[in-house]
From TrEMBL:
<dbReference type="Pfam" id="PF06821">
    <property type="entry name" value="Ser_hydrolase"/>
</dbReference>
<dbReference type="GO" id="GO:0016787">
    <property type="term" value="F:hydrolase activity"/>
</dbReference>
<dbReference type="InterPro" id="IPR029058">
    <property type="entry name" value="AB_hydrolase_fold"/>
</dbReference>
<dbReference type="InterPro" id="IPR010662">
    <property type="entry name" value="RBBP9/YdeN"/>
</dbReference>
<protein>
    <recommendedName>
        <fullName>Serine hydrolase family protein</fullName>
    </recommendedName>
</protein>
Amino acid sequence: MNSAEQKKIYIVHGYQASPNAHWFPWLGRKLQLAGHQSKRVMLAESNQPNFENWQKFLSVQIPNLDENTIIVAHDLGCLAVLHYLTARFKTTGGNIKAGIFVAGFKAPLNSTLELNEFVQQAKLDSAVLQRHMPLALSLFSSNDPIVPPPLSLQLGHFLNAQTYEIKQAGHFLQEHGYDQFQEIWELMKPLLNA
């Protein structure tokens, strides 16, 4: 595979998680075996996320965005990435290939009130995101105990995303059976070959 075909995929965890949790290592391995670069981004102190610190960590670990960049984010990582992308696109332009958002949200959660301050600091621009990220995918679970499906649907609508409901997947955590994530791999395969 030549470098023009090789995709760079960044996998961004969420609240109370790490790059080594849930399905992130599995997806990283799958991508590398398919000949692509994958990087699992580390966000500081995920049990007590600090908005500014997470933005710094994203800027250090995702320095370059281009047409071969795909970002996969879960939970609070979706919101952090979307703020980061909004700011980057406004200052430097450019496009990425796709963003894939799993159990994402942009409104405060009743289940985790401690995240409300973080949520309120995120500034997203729908028009900017849609122009520079022409393809967005949103995945949500029918029985997510943390992020209610309507909030993921709201985010998908905001991004003009292709939205996929996965039945009974909980919050896509290891304890919900998600140490692998076959559905996301099937959705990604066409993007990797395009």
